[in-house]
C-alpha cells in the first residue's frame, strides 16, 4: 500500500476511533434524540444558519466515515427542520457523505481488491459497466441493505463517481422522505404495520420499476414496426455453421417449430474450409514428418513420395464422410425445416427468403465470419489464398508466403512446409501466437526453425511487386526493407464477421468496435427477440464457443419470457494444432500480469514423462496458474503431444471448482500422457508442503528407530 493510501486509511481509522472514544455512539440513539429534541430546536430558533450548517457537517462526517447513526440523524432532521428543509439537508448531506465514503473505498481498496479478486469480479464489473446506475438505484431503494455497505462496495467497482452521486441522491430520496417525515412525528413515532408495509412496497419498487423500464425500452425499440398477430414459427436461424446448427437442433429437440436458412453449404466454415480440412491436412503432414524422422525409432530407412493432388483429395474425402452429420437430411429428420437461400430480416419478426416471408417469434443470427485480406498495395496483382480458398489447390506451391502468426497461419505454415513447400511466415508482432506466453511462442518457433520454416516476426508486409515475372513481398523491419520472393501467398491475418446483406443496417442493429453484432449478456441484439451467436457475435471465434453460445441464444429465444440465461464465458478453452500442440484454458501468465491478478505458477516438464520418452515426444510442459497459497486453478497451458486432449482435465476442474489437490488424488493410468497433469499437481503440492510438520515427522521417525 502506498504512503498516500496508508495516510488516508490512518485518518479514517483515527476519525472512527475518536468517535467511539469520545462516546459519540451514545449520542446518536432515538432515546437521546428525544431527550435533546427541545434543546436542538431552541438552537435552531436562535441560530438557524449555524445550526443547519453544524447538522449538515455532522451528517456528512457520520456517513463519510460509515459510522452508526445516519437513521437517527435523519429523524433529527425532520424533528428540527421540518419535512421540506429536513429533506433537503438530509438528501444532500447523505449523498455527499456517501460519495466521500465511496471515494475513500476506491482510493484505498479498489486496486488491491481488483488485483486479488479481479477474475472473480469480472462478471460483476461488466454488469456494473453496463447497468451500474440501475443496480445502484435498486440497492438504494431496498432499506434492509445498510447504505454504508453499498457505499464501500460500489467504490470497488468501475462505476463513475458522478454517476454514483446522482443515482444515490435520486435513489435515497424516497427513503429520506419517509424517515424525515417520521422525524416530524417523533413524539408520536411508533413502528406500525402501515409503516412496515410502506417499507416493503419501497423494497419492491425497483423490481416493478425494472419491468416498467424494460417495457418502455421495448416499446421504444419496436416503435414503427407492426407485430404479426400470429407466427408461423417459433424460431428462424440464419446460417448453418456450428452456431446455427446447434440453435436449430435445440429448438427441434424441445418441439419448437424452427427454420434454418443457409445460402451456401451446410456445416459452415468448420466443416468445409476450417477445422475439418485443416486437421485432415495436418494429419498427412504429420505422418510425413514421422517418416522423415524414422531413424529416431530405429528404422534405418523409410521414404515417402508426396502426391499433393491426392493429399487434397483425401481432405475432400474426409469432408464428405463428415458431411452427413451436418446435412439437410439429418436436420430435416430431427424436425428442422431447412431452406437454401439468402435470408434478409425485413422486420423484427419477419425473415424474407426469396419470394417467401417467414414470420417468427424469435430470430437467431449465426452468419459466421470470413477471412480478412488487408489492403496491402500491390496485393491485387497476385492471387491471394485464404483459409477458404487454399483447399482448391492441386499443385503444391514451391515457395509459400504465409501472412499472419496466429493459430491458422501457424497450422497451415507447418503443414505446407512438411508437405515440401519452402515456407516463409511473416508476422508484424514480435512473436508467433502472441496471445500465449512467450515461452510457448518460443517452443513453436523453435520447432518451425528446425523444420526449415523461415519465421519473420516483427516484420510488416508493406507491398507486393512483380519484377521480371517474379513475385516479391516487401517487408519493413527495424527501419529497413526485406524482399521475400514467393510463388503463392496465403493470407491468414484474421477473420471478420459477416454483418452485411441480411438486414442489420435496415433494422439499425448496431455493431461493436470489433465489427461483431452488438449483444447483451443474454445474446440479445437491439431487438430483444433477435439474438446473435458464434463468430458474428464474438468475442471468441471457435467452433466450440459458437456451439456454447448457441445454447443460450436458442433457449433464451424460446423461453426468454419465462426465464433468461446469461452466457457464461468463465471457462473458455482453445487449442492450436501445431507440432507441438498448444492448448489453454483460463488465464495465462501474460494476461494475469496485464490484469493485475495475483497468481502462482507451477510447471511440469513433459520431457520427464515416461510415456513421452517412450513415444519419442519428450518435449513440452504443463503450466498451471493458481490463486496464491491455494490450489484453485486460474488457468492452464499445455504444450506438447496431445495437448488438446490433456487440457480437458483442467477444463472440467475449473468448471466444477476442482483444485489441484483433487487432481493429484485422482488415479491416472500408467503410462499415459495424462499423467503429466497429475505430476503438475504434485509439483504444486511439493511447493506447499508443510515444512514444519515434515521436520517434526523426521524427528518422530528417528525416535522410532531408537
Task: Give a description of the structure.
Helices cover 49% and strands 16% of the residues. The longest helix is centred in the N-terminal third of the chain and has 48 residues, at 70-117. The chain contains 24 helices and 22 strands. Helix 5 packs antiparallel against helix 8 (161-184). Strands 1, 2, 3, 4, 5, 6 and 17 form a 7-stranded mixed beta sheet that branches. It is α/β, with parallel strands linked by helices and 706 residues long.
Short key terms for the protein model shown above:
706 residues, alpha/beta, 7-stranded mixed beta sheet, 5-stranded parallel beta sheet, 24 helices, 49% helix, 16% strand
Strand content: 15-25%
Q: What class do helices, strands and sheet pairing give?
A: alpha/beta
> Helical residue percent?
40-55%
Mean pLDDT: 90
Radius of gyration: 33 Å
* N- to C-terminal distance: 52 Å
Largest sheet: 7 strands, mixed
Topology:
Elements: H1 3-21, H2 24-27, H3 30-46, H4 48-64, H5 70-117, H6 122-140, H7 147-154, H8 161-184, H9 193-221, E1 233-238, H10 242-253, E2 258-262, H11 268-272, H12 275-292, H13 308-322, H14 328-334, E3 336-340, E4 343-347, E5 350-353, E6 356-365, E7 369-371, E8 384-385, E9 399-403, H15 407-419, E10 422-427, H16 438-450, E11 454-457, E12 460-467, E13 470-477, E14 480-486, E15 488-491, E16 495-497, H17 504-507, E17 530-532, H18 543-559, E18 573-576, E19 582-586, H19 589-595, E20 600-605, H20 610-614, E21 621-626, E22 633-639, H21 643-655, H22 660-664, H23 675-687, H24 691-704
Parallel strand pairs: 1-2, 1-6, 2-3, 6-17, 8-15, 9-10, 9-15, 10-11
Antiparallel strand pairs: 4-5, 5-6, 7-16, 12-13, 13-14, 18-19, 19-22, 20-21, 21-22
Helix pairs in contact: 3-4, 3-5, 4-5, 5-7, 5-8, 6-8, 6-9, 10-18, 12-13, 12-15
